[in-house]
Amino acid sequence: MSYPSVFYLANAGIYLTDRKTGILVDGLFERYDGFDTLPVSIETAIMEKQPPFEQLTTLLFTHTHVDHYSAGRVSAYLERYPETECILPAPADSGCHTVSIHSGSEHYVYSTHTGFSKAVVEQIYSKHLMDKGKIVPHTALFLNYAGQCFFFSGDSDPVYLNRYIPQEILSACCGKTTMAFVNPFFFPLAPGRRFLENLNPKQIFVYHMPLQVPDPLRYHEILDRGLAKYSGKAPVRTMNRFMCRLQ
């Protein structure tokens, strides 16, 4: 079996490609204090479909905060490549084809098939970290693509996600998830560690960590403290540079 290539861009941006199609997760975003800016070289490669983005067919987002999603950049990309699919957790003003979350349920799961990549996306409604007002709809994602399963936490609150994730989804992905991309708060909080131990992925990658800007939110300290408490089997990796290949 030919496994997809996986690249870390910056912040929470991940790109997957099977060399025929490509899926960009949270990969077109704007500057936000405390987090890295999308490097110009990477943005240019995306917008010009330069390697490794020649086969980019789907834009996928966990939520529409500017450090994950840029309405201007997404609109420009879709205007240039109108055949591209764009999957969002809620309607936005970019002209994208949107996937709406059911307003009557906080634990709603939306399953959709992408047309080009034949991937299956499970969008799990989850609270954003420190977002008590539910201002921006937010999802965690399970992505079944090119014969592998990937998990993306986005900015999910691990306490909420661990409590409300549908058990049938967790059971289906337990031990079968190739890569889990999680924010650093999954480690200092016991429900976050429990979620990862139950998911039992083959590898865990901690993303959305500032690399080239100051760390006012002390994410690195939070992660170091949390890793000391982690006893799961899966190896944990952090990224130390932009645009690095993970698989």
Describe this structure in words.
Mean pLDDT is 86; it is low at 91-108. The protein is 21% helix and 23% strand. The longest helix has 10 residues, at 71-80. Strands 6-7-8-9-10-11-12 form a seven-stranded mixed β-sheet, with no helix packed on it. By secondary structure, the chain is α/β, with parallel strands linked by helices. Strand 3 (22-25), helix 1 (40-47) and strand 4 (56-60) form a beta-alpha-beta unit. The chain is globular and about 45 Å long. It has six helices and 13 strands. Helix 3 (158-164) packs across helix 5.
| Total count of helical runs of at least 4 residues | 6
What percentage of residues falls in helices of 4 or more residues? 10-25%
Strand order of the largest sheet: 6-7-8-9-10-11-12
Order of helices and strands: EEEHEHEEEEEHHEHEHEE
Structural class: alpha/beta
Give the helices and strands, then pairings:
Blueprint: E1 5-8, E2 14-17, E3 22-25, H1 40-47, E4 56-60, H2 71-80, E5 85-87, E6 109-113, E7 120-125, E8 139-145, E9 148-152, H3 158-164, H4 167-173, E10 177-182, H5 190-199, E11 203-206, H6 219-227, E12 236-238, E13 244-245
Parallel strand pairs: 3-4, 4-5, 9-10, 10-11, 11-12
Antiparallel strand pairs: 1-2, 1-13, 2-3, 6-7, 7-8, 8-9
Helix pairs in contact: 3-5
